[in-house]
Amino acid sequence: MTPARVLVVADRDVDAARIEARLRGRPDVRVAVGSTAALTRLIEEHSPSAVVVASTAARLASTLEMLADVGRLPPVVLLADDPHAAWTPAARRAGVRAVLDRDAPAEEIFAALTAAAAGLFTVHPDVFRAPQPAMLDTVADRMLTARELEVLEMLAEGLSNQIIGRRLKISAYTVKFHVASILDKLGAGSRTEAVTTGVRRGLISL
């Protein structure tokens, strides 16, 4: 089996080296390391299946802007000082599919990479600060897919199925299917309730 190619980039070389050391030793993974400043070039050179990004709070916004400008960006696992603050619509639009603590162990990073490859999101528990226990169980068991989260964010903007379909380049019927799945997973009876639940659980922000 061909090893999966994972690109590790960080604001500081020492951080990239530490993460690479954590991920080293698995025969099914090949790790390349570099700086966020060279992100576009590194993706072109290595064609990774996923990217692990470690960014400081001070440079997070500029890092997300750089990610958003990359064409055909693979799923991104973001290691952040404050996962709660890092889990934003801007991060998701930039391709971030997981937000973990900067010191996350290799097992958590690999689990997030596997989930991202399946189109799922993985977030650090701090993202859901002070949730009700039952709520956290529901989020963990019935996580929205990447596309469903995009649709939910557009529902929060008050967009119709037709407009959402045009933005995502899918049919209004497909949008309707995603909306129904969102309502079911969130236990919501309406689009408005789904948005409210999504905001309360930290899935989206207004």
Task: Please explain how this structure is put together.
With 206 residues, the protein is α/β, with parallel strands linked by helices. The protein folds into two domains: 4-128, Response regulator (Rossmann fold, 3-Layer(aba) Sandwich), CATH 3.40.50; 133-200, Arc Repressor Mutant, subunit A (Orthogonal Bundle), CATH 1.10.10.10. The protein contains eleven helices and six strands. A six-stranded parallel β-sheet has the order 2-1-3-4-5-6, sandwiched between helices. Helix 6 links the parallel strand 5 (96-101) and strand 6. The longest helix has 15 residues, at 172-186. The radius of gyration is 17 Å and the shape is elongated. It starts with a strand and ends in a 6-residue tail after the last helix. Residues 130-141 have low confidence and may be disordered.
List the helices and strands and how they pair.
Elements: E1 4-10, H1 13-23, E2 29-35, H2 39-46, E3 50-55, H3 60-68, E4 76-80, H4 83-86, H5 89-93, E5 96-101, H6 106-117, E6 122-123, H7 133-141, H8 146-156, H9 161-168, H10 172-186, H11 191-200
Parallel strand pairs: 1-2, 1-3, 3-4, 4-5, 5-6
Helix pairs in contact: 8-10, 8-11, 9-10, 10-11
Highlighted features:
alpha/beta, Rossmann fold, 206 residues, 6 strands, Arc Repressor Mutant, subunit A
Task: Assign a percent range to the helix content.
Answer: 40-55%
> Domains counted in the coordinates: how many?
2
CA-CA gap between termini: 44 Å
Order of helices and strands: EHEHEHEHHEHEHHHHH
Quick one: biggest sheet? 6 strands, parallel
Instruction: Tally the helices.
Output: 11
As laid out across the biggest beta sheet, the strand order is 2-1-3-4-5-6
